[in-house]
């Protein structure tokens, strides 16, 4: 009996055989024109060959390209453009006095176009048609030639590439279009513009992913209140690691929310999932978790989202709390005014077919520098 790997290889080779007749054609000058790579008879090359299968079908006229914006609704998009302007923040708000109130926490979820996917632990909200097709194309145009391998920050504060995060990314240059987009994000959230980090564009190709993680310092702090050196440096960018007015505000300089813009969604895979969410835990109680570190990408009971191109996704890394808003994460005395949400742990699942492109805007609770 053939092994599973042999069966997979046979399937891939059979798929290539179906395309063999398309491997070349004659151009106007009589010379052959390549449509797909010529056959390479080793398992190592099969995946590369098959990744070009869809392109070959399209060039051969067998298939129409997928319309990335089939679900785009210009009327929904217009509702985001009509958001009222933000009131100018005070200097005190900019330097730690801003409060994560219930009104702030609920503002985006109350937008008429919002779709709340999870009300609590974490709060996750989907915004269809947040970007126009032209805005998406603009971000592609200023980003695609400048991508580099994404890095992760280690406890000692050093950054390096890692199998935990296999995407490519870039901090694109600011333009009038990107400024309009970030302004729209902050008007939707009701949070000062200067609390946002720069937009970060990410590309995930076949097999690339980002393992489950928190965007704030929760991975470092959930077992104690003393931050690692890398977390301290991370918090300093927004007034931390001290909490409260004149410092890092209600999150002690930590990331308060994550806003994701979807530029392109893959044909298969690449969804964002929340394996520690309350609704995930409730749904998984009677299920046997599959073996492997990425069980959450295989289970349909896991809270997740697969936004279309132009859509946006918001989740809160903190929620309104009752802490004293004093102390510091540097010495373990921190008592943040907002409550960190471990349920915001999330993963970008592996891309199976196509590419995934997103833009992330991380939001702090004090001015980010």
From TrEMBL:
It is a single-pass type II membrane protein. The keyword Oxidoreductase applies. This is Fe2OG dioxygenase domain-containing protein. Pfam families: 2OG-FeII_Oxy_3. GO terms for cellular component: endoplasmic reticulum membrane. It catalyses: L-prolyl-[collagen] + 2-oxoglutarate + O2 = trans-4-hydroxy-L-prolyl-[collagen] + succinate + CO2. Coiled coil: none annotated. The keyword Chaperone does not apply. Transmembrane segments: none annotated. GO terms for molecular function: iron ion binding; L-ascorbic acid binding; procollagen-proline 4-dioxygenase activity. Keywords: Dioxygenase, Iron, Metal-binding, Oxidoreductase. It is found in: Endoplasmic reticulum membrane. PANTHER family: PROLYL 4-HYDROXYLASE ALPHA SUBUNIT, TRANSMEMBRANE PROLYL 4-HYDROXYLASE.
